[in-house]
Write a structure and sequence with these properties.
Chains: A mainly alpha (855), B mainly alpha (103), C mainly alpha (300), D mainly alpha (547)
Strand content of chain B: under 5%
Shape of chain A: globular
Structural class of chain B: mainly alpha
CATH architecture of chain B: Orthogonal Bundle
Order of helices and strands of chain B: HHH
Largest interface: B-C, 76 and 91 residues
Strand content of chain A: under 5%
Largest sheet of chain A: 3 strands, antiparallel
Oligomer: heterotetramer
Strand order of the largest sheet of chain A: 5-6-7
Number of strands of chain B: 0
Number of domains of chain B: 1
Distance between the termini of chain A: 41 Å
Largest sheet of chain B: none
Shape of chain B: elongated
Radius of gyration of chain B: 17 Å
CATH class of chain B: Mainly Alpha
Distance between the termini of chain B: 55 Å
Chain lengths: 855, 103, 300, 547
C-alpha cells in the first residue's frame, strides 16, 4: 500500500496540522464576522481529526511492513528471549538474532517470509531521521529529528484520537464564549458588578491546537534538544490555557504556579541534558544516517551488513541509547583504575566506541546517574510527581476540556513518556528513585483525593496518583506495564473529565459535590459513561473470567511487576504494599465520587432542578470514550495494545541482571513477573473490591455517616484537605526565603552598607564623646570645636541616610582590598611546581577493560 | 644619587595614590573630590616616570605619563562642567545632597 | 647640591602637600596644597631626568588644571562662610581604608626586589655554573665585585625545581631585544638548558640589590645594556626622543634596525592624533554642559 | 646616527599607509566629528538635521567593516591558521578577527542608536550636534578598546569611551537626577580609572614593557615559585587585579556596579541602551584581550596565578549575576530594573570569560584541546553579545517610545499597555523572554553556550561547577522580575484616566520590530548556524594566537 517512507510523512502531517490550525485560528478575531462564528472550532476539529486519520494510517502502514509481527500470538510463557519482540536500537545485526528467534516458531513463518519479501525495506527497528537541520555548532547539531517506533505510533494515535474527542466536546462546552459580552461571574469589579469581556471562543481553540502540536512534537522528537523545546512549548501552552480566565486571580496564579513549578523541574532537565551532551556528544536518540535515505529514513529501514557499522563514523552511527547500552540492553560497566565505575560507550556492532585518538569513550557511572536523575527531575515537574505535584490541582482553574487534555493525553503524559523513552539511560539507582517517587506520589495524592469535595479536584488528585503508578511501573522494570497504564488511563481519565465537564455544564458551573446527588436521573448518559470510567480506574473485574475493564489489566500489570520486584529485593517491600493499599483507596474515592454525584437523593434542590443533560455534541464523545475505556485493553497482556507497546521495549528489559558491584537492586525478568502475575492480580482485585465495598457502604448505602467520621478524625481530615501542607511547606521553604533574600539584596545598599556605617557612626559618637570629655575637661576654649563635632555627628546621621557617592568611592577601595584577599585565597601558597596532572583526563586514557557482562 | 632608589620613588607614588583615594572618599565638596582624582593620577604618574628611569620601560614610561596628564586635563574639564551643572540644579556643591537616585 | 637631599626635599614636599589636601577642610586651601603637591611631583620628575614631563606637569597641571579647579571653586561657592566639613566618623573610616591600602601596597610594591626582577628579565635570574665561574674568576675582578657575586647568587637549592630544564629564562630572552642583541660571547642564556641543573646558580632572594649593584652584576655577565634603563638620555635630554616618538619614530630603540623592522616598536603617532580628537569631543561636551541652560517652557 | 636616513626610511615604509587604510572606519567617525563642528560654524545646522551625518558616517563605516570582516574570513576558508593576527600603527592596535567582529558590532549598534534617537527625538534639533559628537567620540573610544594591543591604548580607550559618556548621562542638564547621575558616574569612573592606571604602572614597571603580546613571556621569566609568598607574584596579582578593576567598572561587575543603576535611571533611556550594550561589548573584548595577554608562556607559576585569577573572576561573575537578579526584584522604575538586569547579564558573560581563563590554564597547559575549548567560551561570549545587543536595545527603545507617550518610566504606569500598544507589548515580551533565556529566542542559545563552556571548565576546577549551578539558578530567579513587567503590561487593565499611549507603526513600531526580529532569527533559524560559525572563526583565530 504505502511504502515505509510514508510513515514519517503521515506523522509529520498529523503533527503540523494543528500548528497550521493555530496559525489560522489565532487571527480568527480579525477575519471572523462576529464573535458567534464557530468556524475556528470547526477548523480545529478538522485539523486534529485529520491528524488522527493520518496517525492511524501510519500505524497501519507500519503494521503492514512489520508483517504485524507485534500482534502475532507470541511466546509469552514459552520461554522466549527478550529480544525477539523488543525493537533493537540499531538495525543490521539484529536481523540475525531476529531471524533466529523466528526460526523457533512455526507461527512466524509467514512473518519471516514477509520479512524476506521486503528484505530491503522491512522495518526492524525505530525509524529515525532528520526533517530539517536548524543549526550546527561544531559537533553539536540542533535539528528537527524523528524517532518512530510502535510506542510513538500508539501515542500519536491515542493523542490525536482523544484530542479529537475533546475538541468536539469543547465546541459544546465553550459555546458560552460565543458572545460579544461574556460575563465572568467569578470576577468582581470594584463597583460590585461582574466583569464583562468579549468571548474568546476562537482563542481557546487556537491554544488547544498549539497544545496538541506541542505534545505531538514531543512524541515524535528524535533528539533531546527537540524534546526540550517542545517540553517548554507544552509548558507555555498550559500557561496560556490554565490562565484562560486571566481576570480571575486564582487562574492567573495557578498558571504562574504551573509554569514556575515546571521550570524548577526543567532546571534538572537542563543539567541532565548538558551532562549527556558533554559525554556523548550527540543529542539524538537513535542512530541515523541521513545521506542513506535522502529525507532521513534511517538504519531502521535499511538493512546493513553488520560490518558496515564499523566503517561509519562512530558519532553518527549510534544515538544516545545505542551508546549507553549494547544491543543486549546491558550497561558496560568498567571499574576504572582509580576504582571509579565508568560506563563504556558502545556502538552499533556492540564493540566499544572509540574517540578520535583511539581511546574508549566512557562516562563515569555517577554522572550517568546524575544525568538520569536530572532528566527525571524534568519528568517530576511535568508529570506532577512528588514533590512538585501541587501545581496540577490548581491547574483545574482552566476550562474543563483543557483539564481533560492536560490530564489524559498531553502534558502529564509527557513526563511518563519521557521517562519511558529515556529508560536505556537510567541506571538502577535512578530507576529505584523513580519507583519510590512514584510510590509516594500515588499514595499521597490518593489520600488527599479522599477528602476533596470539588469534583474536578478529586479527578486531579486521582490523576497524580495514577501517574505515580505509571512511574512506579517504570521504576520497577515494568516498562510495558507503565506505558500500558498510560494509554488506558488516558482513555478513562479523559472520559471522566469530560463527564465531569458535562456535569458542570449541566449544573451551571457548580463543582462542589456536596451540592449534587441523584443526578443520574437527570443526566443518564453522563452518569453511566462516568460509571464506566470509574469501574475502569478502580480496576474491577469479574474474578475467574477474562471480563474486565481496561484499568484492571494495566494496574494488574504494574502490581505484578512490583510484586516480582519485591520478591527479588525484599528490602523494598514497600514498593508493593503501598501501591496495593493505594489501589484500594483509589476504588474507594472514585466510587465515593460517583455515589456522591449521581446516586442518592439530591442535596441541593436548586442545583438539581436546573440541571439538564448535555447536548449531543458533548455526549457523543463520552459514549465513544466509554466504549474505549472499557475495552481498549482487551486481552490484557495478550491483547493487541500491550503487544504493540512492548514491541518497542528497550532491549534487555525483560531479563535484566544487576551489573556487578554497582547496583544494589535486581530488576525482575519476564519470567519472574509472569510467575507472580495471577497472585498479584488477586491481591489487587481484593483491594479494589474492598475499596468499592466501603465506598458503597458509606456513600451509597449510608451505613456510616461521613460527617461523623470527619469529626472524629478532624485533624487527619484537615491535614489531608490541606494537601499534606505542601503549599505551606513550599511557602516556608522557598517562597519566603526568596522574599527575604531578595529584600536583603535590594536593600543591600541601605541595609548592609548603612548598617555598617551605622555601626561606625555609633563608634563616631563614642569618639565624639571622648572628644567632648577631653574638650570639657582640658580646654574650655575648644567649646566651638565641640559644637562643631556634635553638629557633625548629627550631620553624619543625615549623611548616612542619603549620602551615596562617597560610599561608592569608598567601596572601590574596599573592594580592591577585598578582591586582593580573594585572589590570595585561590592562589596556592607553597611551591606551585607540583601541578595536579593525574586526576583530570581519566576519561580519555586507554584502560584495558575487563570483559564483563558479555554473556 | 646614592641612597635613593626606585623604591623611594614608589613610596612617594603610593602616598599620593592613597591620599587621593582617601580624599575622594571623604570630601563632601565636589571640587575636592575631583582634586582627589588628580592626586590618584599623579601617584601613578610618579610611578611611570620612576620606572622609565630605573627599568627597561624607558621612554614608554614618560610617554605614558604625558598622555595621562593630557587625559586628566580632559577629564577634569568634563568633570568640572558636570559639577557646575550639578551646582546649578542643586544650588550646592555638597555631594551628599545628590542622593535622589538610590535603592 | 646633593641629589639625595634634593630628592628627599621634593618627596617631603609632595607627600606633605598630598596629606594636607586630605586634611584641610577649606576648598581653596586644598587647591593651594594641591599645587604644592603637584609642583613637588614635578620636581621629582626633574630629579628623574624627565625634564619634559616635569615641564608639562608644571604647565598643564599646575598652570591649567588647577586654575580650572579654582574656577570651579569660585563658581560653586554658595556663600563666603559656608564650610562643608567631613565628620570625624567618616574621617576615621577613610583613615582605616587608607591604612588597609597602605598595608596592601607595603606587602607588594614596596617589598618587591625590583632590581632582581630586572636581572631576571635579562635572563640572569638563573645562570649556569659555567657562566658563574667565568664571571667570578675573571681577570682583574675587584674584591667588592667578588663579594657581590657571592652574595647575590646561591647554588640552585631545590632539586625538583632544578630538575626541569629551567624553562623560564628561554622565551623571555628571546623576547627581549636588548638581551638578545647584547650577549656576545660568554653566557648564552641558552646554556642553562644544557647544564646539569644542580650546577646552576640562582639569585639569592635574601639579598636585596640596589640598582647600581644590579647594573654591576649585569655588566659582570656582559649584559649591561639589558639592565641599564634602555637608551634614556641620563642628562634629561628627553625632548627630542619624546617628540620623535610622538611622530611615530623610536630612535631610542630602532636606531640599529630601522630598515629591517621600523614598525615593531610603538611609536605614539596614533594616540597623539586620537587624543586631539578626544579633546575636541570633550571640549564640545564640556561647553554644552557648562552653557547656561535654555529654559524652555515645559509642556506640563 | 643619521636622523635623515631614519626619517626617509620610515617615510618610505608602507606600514603607515597600510595602517591608515585598515583604520578607515575610525577615521570616518573622526572626520564626521569635525564635520559636525564645521557645519555648525557655518550655521548649516539650521537646515540640515543633525542626525544625518552620524547616520551616514556609521553606515559607511559599517559597510567598510563588514567588507573587511568578510574579506578576512574569506581569506582563511576552513581552518584558521595562527599568525593571521596583524597589527596597526606599530603594534599599538591589533587587527584581527576580534577587532573586526567588534567593529561590525559597534558600528551596527551605532547606526541603530542614531536611528533610535532620530525617532524618539531625545536630542532636539538644537542639541543634536553636541549629542552626536559625544556619541561618535565615545564610539571611537570603544573601537580603540576592542582592538587595544598596548596598555596605553587600553587606558586611552577606556578614557575616550568614558569621558564622553559622562557628558551623555548628564545630557538632560535641566533635570536634577540627570546631573546627579552624571556626577556620580564621573567620580566613580575617575576613581576606577585611577586604580587601573596605578595597576598599569606596576605592570609596566615589572615587565619593562607596555606591549600586551609580550606580557606573558616576560611574566613567566619574572615569577618565582612560592605562590603568594613570592612578593613578585603578589605584585603581579595586585597589578592585574587593579587593571581588571577598571574593566570591571566598565562592565558594571558586582563590587564596582554602584554607578550603573543610578546613571541609567538618571540618563535618558536611549543613552542607557547605548551604554549598556556598546561599552559592555567593547569592555568584554578588551577583557578577553588582556586576559589572553596574561596567558601562555611556560611558567607553572604564571599558570597557577592565572588559574587563581580565573576562578576569582568566576566567583565575582556569580556574585554579579546573583546580585543583579535579586536586586532587580523590588525596583519600581523600568530603567533601573533594566540596569540591574544589565548587571546580571554582565555576570553571565563574565562567567564565559572566567571559563576561558580556567580552561587555558589547566594542568595540560595551552594545548590544542584547551585552545578548542577556550574558543567555545569566546564563541559563546560573542554570540551572547550579539543577541544581547538586540534584546537590550529593543527593551530600552520600547521604554523610550512609551516614555514619549505616557511621560513615565514607572512600572506601575505600564499597566495595560500590552493591549493599548500591542506591537510594542509583544516586542517587549520577546525581548524579556530572550533576556530570561527561554528556548525559542536567541538569549537561550547564548546562555546555553556559556553554561556549556562553564561545564567544561568545571573539569579543571570544581569551583566552576558551583558557578554553573549558581548561574542556572539565576535564570530561574530572573524569571520573576521580568514576568512582573509583563504581568503589569498584559494582565492588568489600564486604569481610568491614565494617559493613552499611541505608537504608530511607522516608523517607531517598525524600528522596534526590526530590533526584535533578530532575536527570533538568532534563536531558531538557519541564522543561528551562520552566526555561530562566524563566532567560532573569530574565537578560534583569536585563541590560535596564544602561545
Amino acid at each position: 500500500m504505502f511504502s515505509p517512507t510514508a510513515i514519517p510523512k503521515f506523522l509529520a502531517v498529523a503533527w503540523l496540522l494543528p500548528l497550521l490550525g493555530f496559525a489560522v485560528e489565532i487571527f480568527a478575531g480579525r477575519w471572523q464576522r462576529d464573535r458567534k462564528d464557530r468556524t475556528a472550532a470547526g477548523l480545529a476539529v478538522a485539523c486534529i481529526a485529520t491528524g488522527f486519520v493520518c496517525s492511524a494510517l501510519a500505524l497501519f502502514t507500519w503494521g503492514i511492513h512489520t508483517g504485524w509481527a507485534a500482534l502475532a500470538p507470541s511466546a509469552h510463557g514459552e520461554g522466549h528471549h527478550g529480544e525477539s519482540h523488543s525493537a533493537a536500537h540499531d538495525a543490521g545485526h539484529d536481523e540475525h538474532a531476529k531471524a533466529d528467534d523466528h526460526g523457533h516458531d512455526a507461527e512466524h513463518a509467514k512473518a519471516e517470509s514477509n520479512d524476506e519479501a521486503h528484505a530491503d525495506h522491512a522495518i526492524t527497528g525505530p525509524l529515525t531521521g532528520t526533517f530539517y537541520t536548524l543549526a550546527r555548532f561544531g559537533s553539536l547539531q540542533l535539528s528537527i529529528d524523528f524517532y518512530i517506533d510502535s510506542l510513538t505510533l500508539v501515542m500519536f494515535t491515542m493523542v490525536t484520537f482523544i484530542a479529537t474527542c475533546i475538541h468536539l466536546f469543547a465546541t459544546g462546552y465553550m459555546s458560552e464564549e460565543l458572545t460579544d459580552d461574556y460575563v465572568d461571574h467569578q470576577v468582581h469589579t470594584r463597583n460590585g458588578g461582574h466583569f464583562h469581556r468579549p468571548g474568546r471562543f476562537y482563542r481557546f481553540f487556537a491554544f488547544l491546537s498549539l497544545f496538541c502540536f506541542s505534545m505531538l512534537g514531543l512524541v515524535i522528537a528524535g533528539n533531546i534538544f527537540m524534546v526540550f523545546v517542545f517540553w517548554e512549548l507544552v509548558g507555555v501552552c498550559s500557561y496560556f490555557l490554565i490562565g484562560f480566565y486571566v481576570e480571575r486571580k486564582s487562574a492567573s496564579t495557578a498558571a504562574n504556579k504551573a509554569f514556575i513549578m515546571n521550570r524548577v523541574g526543567d532546571f534538572g532537565f537542563l543539567i541532565g541534558l548538558m551532562v549527556l551532551w558533554t559525554y556523548f556528544g550527540t543529542f539524538s536518540f537513535g542512530a541515523y544516517n541521513p545521506e542513506a535515505t535522502g529525507y532521513g529514513i534511517a538504519s531502521g529501514l535499511k538493512v546493513e551488513a553488520p560490518h558496515e557499522g564499523e566503517e561509519a563514523a562512530p558519532t553518527v552511527a549510534t544515538g544516545l541509547f545505542g551508546m549507553a547500552r549494547g544491543s543486549d540492553g546491558q550497561l558496560r560497566i568498567d571499574q576504572d583504575v582509580d576504582g571509579v565505575a565508568t560506563v563504556v560507550m558502545t556502538q552499533a556492532d556492540d564493540t566499544d566506541l572509540l574517540d578520535a585518538e583511539g581511546n574508549h569513550r566512557m562516562i563515569p557511572y555517577v554522572l550517568l546517574t546524575i544525568a538520569g536523575l536530572g532528566i527525571f527531575a524534568g519528568c517530576i515537574g511535568k508529570s506532577a510527581q512528588f514533590p512538585l505535584q501541587t501545581w496540577l490541582p490548581d491547574a483545574m482553574e482552566g476550562p474543563t476540556p483543557v483539564s481533560a487534555l492536560v490530564h489524559s493525553a498531553t502534558m502529564v503524559a509527557a513526563g511518563v513518556y519521557l521517562a519511558a523513552r529515556f529508560y536505556p539511560m537510567f541506571t538502577h539507582e535512578v530507576l529505584l528513585t523513580i519507583a519510590y517517587i512514584g510510590c509516594i506520589t500515588a499514595f499521597v495524592a490518593a489520600t488527599i483525593a479522599i477528602v476533596a469535595t470539588d469534583i474536578k479536584k478529586v479527578l486531579a488528585y486521582s490523576t497524580i496518583s495514577q501517574l505515580g503508578y505509571m512511574m512506579l511501573g517504570i521504576g520497577v522494570g515494568g516498562w510495558g506495564a507503565g506505558l500500558f497504564h498510560l494509554i488506558t488511563h488516558a482513555f478513562f481519565k479523559s472520559l471522566m473529565f469530560l463527564a465531569s465537564g458535562s456535569v458542570i455544564y449541566g449544573c451551571h458551573h457548580e463543582q462542589e459535590m456536596p451540592k449534587m446527588g441523584g443526578l443520574w436521573r437527570k443526566m443518564p448518559i453522563t452518569a453511566f459513561t462516568m460509571l464506566a470510567g470509574v469501574i475502569a480506574i478502580a480496576g474491577l473485574a469479574i474474578p475467574g473470567t477474562p471480563i474486565a475493564f481496561s484499568g484492571f489489566h494495566s494496574k494488574d500489570a504494574i502490581v505484578a511487576n512490583a510484586l516480582a520486584f519485591t520478591y527479588a529485593n525484599p528490602s523494598h517491600f514497600l514498593l508493593f504494599v503501598v501501591p496495593l493499599v493505594t489501589a484500594g483507596i483509589t476504588a474507594f474515592y472514585m466510587f465515593r465520587l460517583w455515589f456522591y454525584t449521581f446516586a442518592g437523593k439530591p442535596r441541593d434542590h436548586h442545583v438539581y432542578d436546573h440541571c439538564h443533560e448535555s447536548p449531543r455534541v458533548m455526549t457523543t464523545p463520552l459514549i465513544v470514550l466509554a466504549v474505549l475505556a472499557a475495552g481498549c485493553a482487551i486481552g490484557g497482556e495478550e491483547g493487541p495494545l500491550y503487544k504493540l507497546i512492548t514491541f518497542s521495549q528497550p532491549a534487555g528489559v525483560d531479563a535484566m541482571d544487576p551489573p556487578p558491584a554497582v547496583a544494589q537492586t535486581t530488576l525482575p525478568g519476564h519470567e519472574a513477573v509472569h510467575a507472580v502475575h495471577s497472585q498479584a492480580g488477586m491481591y489487587a482485585l481484593i483491594a479494589a473490591f474492598l475499596g468499592t465495598g466501603i465506598a458503597w457502604l458509606v456513600y451509597g448505602k449510608g451505613v456510616l455517616d461521613p460527617a461523623d467520621v470527619k469529626r472524629q478524625l478532624s485533624s487527619l481530615h484537615t491535614f489531608l484537605s490541606e494537601k499534606w501542607q505542601f503549599d505551606t511547606l513550599y511557602d516556608v521553604m522557598f517562597v519566603r526565603p526568596v522574599h527575604v533574600v531578595s529584600s536583603w539584596c535590594t536593600a543591600f545598599d541601605r541595609v548592609v552598607i548603612d548598617g555598617f556605617l551605622h555601626f561606625l557612626s555609633r563608634l563616631t559618637i563614642k569618639v565624639a564623646h571622648v572628644d567632648r570629655r577631653f574638650d570639657e575637661g582640658v580646654v574650655d576654649g575648644f567649646v566651638n570645636l565641640m559644637a562643631d563635632s556634635t553638629y557633625s555627628v548629627g550631620r553624619s546621621f543625615r549623611v548616612l541616610q542619603t549620602g551615596k557617592l562617597r560610599q561608592y568611592v569608598m567601596f572601590i577601595a574596599v573592594s580592591v582590598v577585598f578582591l586582593f584577599v580573594l585572589v590570595f585565597a585561590f592562589f596556592p601558597r607553597g611551591s606551585s611546581t607540583s601541578a595536579p596532572e593525574a586526576d583530570v583526563k581519566v576519561s580519555s586514557r586507554v584502560v584495558p577493560r575487563p570483559e564483563v557482562n558479555r554473556d | 644619587m646614592a641612597g635613593v632608589d626606585l623604591t623611594a620613588y614608589l613610596l612617594v607614588g603610593a602616598v599620593l595614590f592613597v591620599c587621593g583615594i582617601v580624599c575622594m572618599a571623604t570630601k563632601r565638596n565636589g571640587i575636592g573630590v575631583l582634586m582627589g582624582v588628580e592626586l590618584v593620577l599623579n601617584g601613578a604618574n610618579v610611578n611611570f616616570v620612576a620606572f622609565s628611569r630605573y627599568t627597561s620601560l624607558g621612554l614608554d614610561g614618560q610617554m605614558m605619563s604625558l598622555f595621562v596628564i593630557v587625559l586628566a586635563a580632559a577629564e577634569a574639564a568634563i568633570a568640572l562642567a558636570i559639577a557646575l551643572n550639578f551646582y546649578n540644579n542643586h544650588q550646592t556643591i555638597d555631594v551628599d545632597r545628590g542622593s535622589e537616585l538610590q535603592g | 647640591m646633593n641629589g639625595a637631599a634634593l630628592f628627599w626635599f621634593f618627596a617631603a614636599v609632595t607627600c606633605a602637600g598630598a596629606v594636607a589636601v586630605v586634611v584641610s577642610q577649606n576648598v581653596v586651601r586644598m587647591a593651594v596644597w594641591l599645587i604644592v603637591a603637584l609642583g613637588g611631583a614635578a620636581g621629582l620628575f626633574f630629579q628623574l631626568s624627565a625634564d619634559f614631563v616635569g615641564a608639562t606637569q608644571l604647565l598643564i597641571y599646575v598652570g591649567g588644571t588647577i586654575v580650572l579647579l579654582i574656577f570651579g571653586v569660585m563658581l560653586t561657592a554658595s556663600g563666603p562662610y559656608l564650610r562643608i566639613k567631613t565628620s570625624p566618623g567618616e574621617g576615621f573610616l577613610a583613615a582605616g581604608v587608607g591604612l588597609l591600602f597602605v598595608l596592601v601596597l607595603m606587602s607588594t610594591v614596596l617589598t618587591i626586589d625590583w632590581n632582581a626582577g630586572r636581572l631576571k628579565l635579562a635572563g640572569l635570574g638563573k645562570v649556569s655554573a659555567d657562566a658563574y665561574e667565568t664571571a667570578l674568576h675573571k681577570e682583574g675582578l675587584s674584591e667588592s665585585d667578588r663579594t657581590l657575586l657571592e652574595q647575590a647568587y646561591q647554588p640552585s637549592a631545590k632539586a625538583d625545581h632544578a630538575a626541569e630544564p629551567a624553562p623560564k629564562s628561554g622565551p623571555a630572552v628571546a623576547e627581549n631585544p636588548e638581551a638578545a642583541d647584547s650577549h656576545g660571547s660568554a653566557p648564552k642564556p641558552g646554556d642553562v638548558h644544557s647544564v646539569p641543573a644542580a650546577l646552576a646558580y640562582e639569585l639569592n632572594p635574601g639579598r636585596r640589590l640596589t640598582s647600581a649593584e644590579a647594573a654591576r652584576l649585569a655588566a659582570l655577565f656582559g649584559q649591561e645594556k639589558a639592565v641599564v634603563a634602555s637608551a634614556m638620555p641620563a642628562q634629561g635630554d628627553t625632548i627630542r626622543p619624546l617628540g620623535l616618538a610622538l611622530a611615530g619614530l623610536r630612535p631610542d630603540r630602532d636606531l640599529n634596525k630601522v630598515h629591517a623592522k621600523a614598525a615593531t616598536t610603538p611609536g605614539y603617532l596614533l594616540p597623539f592624533e586620537i587624543v586631539s580628537v578626544h579633546l575636541l569631543v570633550v571640549l564640545i561636551g564640556a561647553a554644552y554642559l557648562a552653557r547656561t541652560k535654555r529654559r524652555r517652557v515645559e509642556a506640563s | 646616527m643619521n636622523f635623515e636616513s631614519i626619517l626617509t626610511g620610515v617615510m618610505n615604509d608602507a606600514s603607515w599607509g597600510r595602517s591608515l587604510g585598515l583604520f578607515a572606519p575610525e577615521l570616518i567617525l573622526c572626520v564626521s566629528i569635525v564635520a559636525l563642528l564645521l557645519l555648525r560654524l557655518v550655521n548649516a545646522d539650521r537646515w540640515l538635521p543633525s542626525y544625518l551625518i552620524p547616520l551616514f558616517a556609521s553606515l559607511t563605516a559599517l559597510g567598510i567593516a563588514v567588507y573587511s570582516f568578510f574579506q578576512m574570513h574569506g581569506a582563511i576558508e576552513g581552518i584558521p591558521t595562527p599568525g593571521t593576527t596583524q597589527t596597526m600603527f606599530t603594534g599599538l592596535l591589533a587587527y584581527d578577527s576580534l577587532t573586526l567582529f567588534l567593529r561590525v558590532f559597534l558600528l551596527g549598534f551605532l547606526a541603530l542608536v542614531v536611528t533610535l534617537t532620530m525617532l524618539s527625538g531625545i536630542p532636539d534639533a538644537e542639541d543634536g550636534p553636541d549629542f552626536y559628537t559625544l556619541l561618535l567620540g565615545s564610539t571611537i573610544g570603544m573601537m580603540l578598546m576592542s582592538s587595544a594591543n598596548h596598555l596605553l591604548i587600553l587606558f586611552l580607550g577606556i578614557e575616550m569611551t568614558s569621558v564622553p559618556s559622562y557628558a551623555m548621562v548628564g545630557f538632560l542638564k535641566g533635570r536634577r537626577v540627570s546631573s546627579e547621575a552624571a556626577f556620580k558616574y564621573v567620580v566613580y569612573g575617575a576613581g576606577a580609572a585611577g586604580v587601573m592606571l596605578y595597576g598599569i604602572s606596576l605592570l609596566g614597571g615589572l615587565t619593562g614593557t607596555l606591549e600586551m603580546p609580550v606580557l606573558a613571556s616576560r611574566l613567566s621569566a619574572l615569577l618565582g615559585p612560592g605562590g603568594m609568598n613570592d612578593p613578585t607574584s603578589r605584585t603581579v596579582a595586585l597589578a592585574a587585579m587593579m587593571v581588571l578593576v577598571g574593566l570591571a567598572f566598565k562592565l558594571s561587575v558586582f563590587p564596582f556596579h554602584f554607578w550603573c543603576p543610578d546613571a541609567f535611571e538618571g540618563a535618558a533611556a536611549e543613552v542607557g541602551g547605548y551604554l549598556s550594550v556598546a561599552s559592555k561589548g567593547a569592555a568584554f573584548a578588551l577583557l578577553v584581550r588582556f586576559l589572553l595577554a596574561f596567558t601562555g608562556g611556560t611558567s607553572v607559576d604564571l599558570t597557577s596565578l592565572n588559574l587563581a585569577l580565573g576562578v576569582g573572576l568566576g566567583v565575582v561573575a556569580a556574585a554579579t549575576a546573583t546580585f543583579g537578579n535579586l536586586a532587580a526584584y523590588s525596583q519600581t522604575n523600568v530603567k533601573r530594573l533594566l540596569a540591574y538586569s544589565t548587571i546580571a547579564h554582565a555576570g553571565y558573560m563574565l562567567m564565559g570569560v572566567a571559563a576561558m581563563v580556567v580552561l587555558l590554564n589547566g594542568p595540560g597547559g595551552v594545548d590544542a584541546a584547551a585552545k578548542g575549548e577556550a574558543a567555545t567560551c569566546i564563541e559563546g561570549l560573542l554570540y551572547y553579545l550579539a543577541v544581547y545587543l538586540f534584546m537590550n536595545l529593543g527593551a530600552f527603545a520600547i521604554v523610550a517610545f512609551i516614555r514619549n507617550e505616557i511621560y513615565s518610566e514607572e512600572i506601575s504606569d505600564y499597566a495595560g499597555l500590552g493591549r493599548q500598544v500591542p506591537l510594542l507589548g509583544a516586542c517587549m515580551m520577546i525581548c524579556l523572554f530572550s533576556l530570561i533565556g527561554l528556548p525559542p529566542f536567541g538569549g537561550f542559545v547564548g546562555k546555553f553556550m556559556i553554561f556549556a563552556s562553564l561545564f567544561q571548565a568545571g573539569k579543571i576546577h570544581m569551583a566552576m561547577w558551583v558557578i554553573l549551578v549558581i548561574g542556572t539558578l539565576n535564570t530561574i530567579f530572573s524569571l520573576f522580575y521580568y514576568l512582573r513587567v509583563l504581568k503589569v503590561m498584559f494582565l492588568e487593565s489600564r486604569p481610568e484616566g491614565a494617559r493613552r499611549a499611541r505608537v504608530s507603526f511607522m516608523p517607531s513600531g517598525a524600528f522596534v520590530l526590526l530590533v526584535t526580529l533578530p532575536l527570533l532569527l538568532l534563536g531558531a533559524s538557519p541564522l543561528v548556524n551562520s552566526m555561530s560559525d562566524a563566532a567560532t572563526r573569530v574565537a578560534s583565530m583569536l585563541v590560535a594566537a596564544v602561545r
